[in-house]
Amino acid sequence: PMPSRNEKSILVVILLGAFLLRVALSSYGTYLNDFNTFIGWSERITKVGAHAFYSEWSDYLPGYIYVLWGIGLMRLVSWLNSAIPVTLWFKLPAMLADIGIMWIGYRILRPYVSMKQAFVAVALIGFNPALIANSTLWGQVDSLNTFFIVLTLWYALTKSKVKTGVGLALATVVKPQSVLAAFPVAFRFLHDEKWLRLGIGAAASFVVTLSLLFLPFAGGMPFATILTRVSATLNQYSHTSLNAFNFWALGDQWWIFDGDPWLLGVSYKLWGVIFFFALLTVAIFRSWSRTPTLADQRIATRETLWYAAVTFASMFFFLTRVHERHLLPLLPLLALTAGFGKRLWIAYALFSLTYLLNLLFSYHWLTRNFIEIFSQGFVNLLVLTNGLALVLLITEGFSAANRTSLPVVSEVHETP
Hints:
disordered C terminus; 18 helices; mainly alpha; 68% helix
């Protein structure tokens, strides 16, 4: 049966409430260095166009530059520009992305869980202070690539190979680390008998879309431009941890050049890659024990979301060159996984708390002449808290592997 009018009304109230809260808070907490940079890029792209934009410095890929271009063009309309405060103009895309994440999350969950479970998960995404602090206060754009990551997974779950590739390209062209969503996409496709066709279709769609998105900036050489811009973005900082409360922050090991040798003469960077792929490999082997049950779309959805959460949690905790903000994609993925049951809400709460404190630490550090608001001992405690949350995420996955099915819900409807 279709959802009732009452259910649709509740969803609208939750989405509208989350959006209005963001609008009300949007004038506070702005990190002006990032904010003024976005204004400058918006004015520049509007003035010179795509072909000349990268003749001056920018460490962002074209994805968000397109958004800034759109803002710049709309602000040329005088009455529209005067009607909306400048702060809201540049925070609005990420704020809308937060609402989009909630809506897609509801669409993903609702066919398989009760109305109450879906609403709880969506509300705990939309009203999470950690997400609000990033998009609405700081004014950063991690919600935008997170929106496209969640969209990509939705398409992968429905086995829409072309849309999956397009979604992944859109996420990657905003933030390059988003390409790691290819791992949970592959995880889902490999459990399908048509996995090769799905994979080739998604890969081709990804390459074509990415090339087209770079083309206006490329002067007819999209592949060379892709390599140049991605290299510029990833090599802007070459340190173990950029204020992120991850493994490399333990014992004051952050802000070390990640090409330096660490254990056995192997660089920090390579050790991070080894740890990351080791954890993903463990998760893959664990999932293969559930191959027969993944024919159940409900279990397949939960497993894919779990593997996506593991991917982005591992990325944040072990890879080098990670900012404090890069944990954000994990939070909605983890909330959606927890929407199938209660066991992961503790991990969600821990990651949300440490993320909020990490943003506070970095904001103070950046705006108060690099003064650290927390002692190294407290930072170590927060890193260990993230480690505990990661362990809870992994062990719940292994615990679920020993359960033959997910709890049955009494009411399940189609999504609106």
